[in-house]
Amino acid sequence: MRDPAIVARELLGKLVVRFLSRRVSCMIVETEAYYGPEDPASRARRGGDLAKVMAGDVGVALIFGVHGNWLLNVVAHEPDNVGAILIRACEPIEGIKVMIKNRGVNDVKSLTNGPGKLSRALAIDKRFHGLPLYTREHGLWIEYFKDVGNDEIVRSYRVGVSKDLPVKLRFYIKGNPYVSKK
């Protein structure tokens, strides 16, 4: 159990893997950390199932919809706290043709450069909500791919939130063309 900001940084360079009759994967290039009810941008402020999952077992998927898109989050928090990391963008690695078919676009750079885009490309939806991402059992998991050095990481404020904490909780790989917003 660890602070969401630390986990958000450490997820950079890891793979989100989906089994869709074959292995399809993308490297995480952008994340955002979210905390509990004290975080004005957190879904935990609303209570209900999302807050319950965010306070529950770490390493499980937190899936919710925004503007018609499913968003993939990873639950991470310190003991007796609440938190999750939004996977904002990924770089396609394996199964690019499958991702193109799922998204209905031919431009590889726009396949997974946003949270809704990557969920569509990898066919991630609400059925994965609350399931562990540290096992391959359900066809969606996160695994090691490569380390990303501190000098390769940019920190900024979170994207698209009207009220934010006074701490930079967005992390992305410097110069990566798949980052959603610079």
Average residue pLDDT: 95
Largest sheet: number of strands, sense, barrel closure: 8 strands, antiparallel
| Count of β-strands | 8
Task: Briefly note the structural class of the backbone.
Answer: alpha+beta
Please give the share of residues in helix. Answer: 10-25%
Given the C-alpha coordinates, what overall shape results?
A: globular
Keywords:
182 residues, alpha+beta, 3-methyladenine DNA Glycosylase, Chain A, eight-stranded antiparallel beta sheet, 8 strands, globular
Structure description:
- With 182 residues, the protein is an alpha+beta fold.
- The chain has one domain: Methylpurine-DNA glycosylase (MPG) (3-methyladenine DNA Glycosylase, Chain A), CATH 3.10.300.10.
- The chain contains four helices and eight strands.
- Strands 1, 2, 3, 4, 5, 6, 7 and 8 form an eight-stranded antiparallel β-sheet that branches.
- The longest helix is centred in the first third of the chain and has 8 residues.
- The protein is globular and about 40 Å long.
